[in-house]
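In this supplementary section we document a worked example of the pipeline. Step one takes a protein sequence of length 342 as its only input; no multiple sequence alignment statistics are reported here. Step two produces a three-dimensional model, which step three serialises into structure tokens for compact storage. The input and output of this example are shown verbatim.
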Amino acid sequence: MSSEIPEIHLSSFIEMTPDLVCIAGRDGFFKKVNRAVIEKFGYSREELMSRPIAFFMHPEDRQQTLHKRAELFEGKSLVNFRNRYVTKSGNILWLEWTSLYFPKEAVVFAIAKDITKRRQMEQEIEEDYHKFKGLATHFKSSIEEDRKFLAREMHEELAQLASLLKMDIESVRKHLAVLPPAAADRIENAAIVSQQLIMTIRRLSFSISPNMLEHLGLNATLEWHCREFAILNSISCSFQSTFDDTRLTDELRIDLFRICQEGLQNILKHAQATEVKVAIEEAGNQIRMTILDNGKGFAQTQQKRSSGLTRMRERAASINAILSVDSAPSRGTSISVAIPKR
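The serialised model returned by step three reads:
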């Protein structure tokens, strides 16, 4: 029993395919086009053949397309290249090309898919992304402004009132000799408490909104913060930076500080560490901040349950950064934030 396979003519297939298929010469004119090209562009076959291909390109994409075309003549293949064309009715047509150049015949064979609807959806998604990112940035900036106001009020109002109280107590201390021993002890204790109150207010003010971040920059602020962390918690904490932080925007500086602040708080609460290292460096096309501790570590499955890590990831995502965590029981933890250079 025999069967016959019907002959399928390649030219018929090319003519019937919904993809745009064309042959172009080095002179920049169409030599052949299939039916899909005519239908998508809206021009007749004669109109397409009589004008240079660049005539149909979107003006903003013309230079880039001609540059890619020149590379094609040099032997570089063109795969999934996107550009825009203007149809006869004035609509924008997005095409994705795969092209080959045949030097012997001096022609380009090209196939394109119509991705106009896909690009419209992508642009809508991009617009929504930028809109929501803008809102997130606005809310974040608003919160930071509120923090700044609260920190300023604490530093300028509460700290000053506590300082006045301390001055009054110091004035009374000059007359301790004429006071009963119990009263003298209470005055001494009040002097110590008032000093601690002033230091606590200043520390809280810095934690809420570090004023020195604006004036001295990120490196100086993190160095001071690490030193304070070490003094207050008896945990060795060092800071090192090989990056010029003046190249960072205000948004990036405050976000990196907040991520480091959250990281140190997590270490204090959970890590049982005796040593912490914070570093900022340039790594290729990225700026990387690393927080490393020698604490008890944790299994990777525990990451999702950590609210601190969640907050750090969310803040990193808001500046297009990637936060990665490397930890294991009894091996400490390394938190890295990688920001693409802008």
